[in-house]
Design the sequence.
């Protein structure tokens, strides 16, 4: 395996230009009707006084995700009469409209939706929002569109871990990319960690990688000698994929996952540790776009850093924000994935989880705050929905779910279960 720290910048996502209108010249009655409609859209109505443009919080970016048969959409509430608003778009992947807010006739709803004929991929566009014909906002947006897989599609897996990310905070934070994944996902925000040891990272990530509890893999802590005591009877899903003839890669923030687990295991085609979540995301996006690995494992560590520094709590703004930061990094990673030249011919599983929760500034003592976690499995052909708690979802399920998706038989009595069905 190679161990390098070379970082390259992320390429921008592709955009698709809207085709020109075609058709015969409009006759005068039709032209007058069209001008009348345009006047309504721009707020030029004799019976509507638009007045000053309303103020609103402009989002950094609008994010949409479309699944086969399920278009992506996003809405935004705005003050002001809907007849005074109009929109313009510079691409063909989305369409936009402004309608009256049913809960408040003096307010409006902006709806942005992916178009039915938008091709798979990541599309960067801009939405020009106007009030009474004058521009009041120019909103960047990304529309991520998954292809419909078939029996010939090449199966590939992306596993993304957020270290120390609580499920309640993840749901409260601004996470439009994760929100877009859920309609194509099997998921749980009431899953559990490994069940037989303290909720620390060494045992947690070892259970995620191997699919067995701590009493089997025997990694009892975070020290090198504790990793060295691992029972290799239970290899990682990366090793199982490698031994099945697939190429594998890992880009991780926490160095111990690489130096004490994956590097000694020796089954990672490409491996790298980078001490920055932003650079981990940059590097992963480039690998996805420019290289061809079948299984990629990504580890982001900043939620755990912030939790230790200032608290694992919904009441900690910094801890909430770092979950939103991870979502932005996830978006960058998916843009790299969807910019692959072979993307339309591939069938991807995106699996996500964490190693533990937290309380106060720690997480080693087992409690509902530390063992309650989240898992997400997204793929275009899954039947989406929440995994019932009666099925005991846990991060032990990552390993068998990855193997099931790739058609690799599990070995040696795993404790987790596939969540594809």
Sequence:
């Amino acid at each position: 395996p190679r161990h390098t720290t070379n970082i390259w910048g992320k390429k921008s996502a592709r955009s698709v230009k809207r085709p020109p209108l075609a058709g015969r010249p409009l006759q005068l009655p039709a032209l007058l009707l069209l001008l009348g409609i345009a006047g309504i859209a721009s707020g030029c109505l004799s019976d509507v006084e638009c007045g000053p443009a309303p103020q609103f919080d402009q989002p950094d970016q609008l994010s949409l995700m479309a699944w086969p048969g399920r278009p992506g959409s996003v809405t935004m509430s705005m003050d002001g009469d809907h007849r005074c608003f109009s929109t313009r778009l510079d691409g063909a992947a989305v369409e936009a409209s402004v309608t009256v807010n049913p809960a408040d006739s003096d307010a409006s709803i902006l709806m942005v939706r992916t178009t039915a004929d938008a091709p798979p991929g990541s599309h960067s566009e801009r939405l020009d929002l106007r009030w009474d014909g004058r521009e009041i906002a120019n909103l960047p947006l990304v529309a991520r569109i998954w292809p419909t897989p078939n029996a010939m599609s090449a199966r590939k897996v992306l596993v993304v871990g957020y270290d120390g990310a609580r499920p309640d905070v993840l749901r409260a934070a601004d996470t439009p990319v994760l929100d877009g994944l859920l309609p194509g996902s099997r998921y749980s925000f009431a899953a559990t960690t490994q069940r037989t040891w303290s909720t620390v990272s060494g045992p947690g990530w070892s259970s995620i990688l191997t699919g067995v509890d701590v009493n089997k893999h025997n990694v009892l802590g975070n020290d090198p000698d504790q990793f060295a005591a691992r029972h290799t009877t239970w290899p990682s899903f990366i090793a199982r994929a490698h031994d099945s003839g697939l190429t594998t890669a890992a880009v991780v923030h926490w160095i111990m996952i690489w130096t004490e687990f994956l590097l000694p295991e020796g089954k990672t085609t490409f491996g790298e540790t980078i001490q920055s979540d932003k650079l981990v995301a940059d590097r992963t996006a480039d690998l996805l776009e420019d290289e061809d690995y079948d299984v990629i494992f990504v580890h982001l560590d900043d939620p755990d850093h912030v939790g230790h520094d200032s608290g694992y709590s919904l009441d900690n703004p910094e801890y909430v924000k770092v979950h939103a930061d991870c979502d932005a990094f996830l978006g960058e990673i998916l843009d790299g994935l969807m910019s692959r030249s072979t993307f339309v011919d591939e069938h991807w599983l995106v699996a996500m989880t964490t190693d533990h929760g937290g309380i106060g500034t720690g997480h080693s003592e087992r409690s509902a705050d530390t063992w309650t976690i989240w898992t997400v499995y997204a793929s275009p052909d899954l039947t989406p929905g929440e995994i019932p708690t009666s099925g005991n979802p846990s991060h032990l399920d990552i390993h068998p779910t990855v193997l099931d998706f790739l058609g690799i038989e599990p070995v040696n009595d795993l404790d987790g279960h596939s969540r594809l069905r």
In short: The longest strand covers residues 134-145. The chain has a mean pLDDT of 90. The chain is about 30% helix and 25% strand.
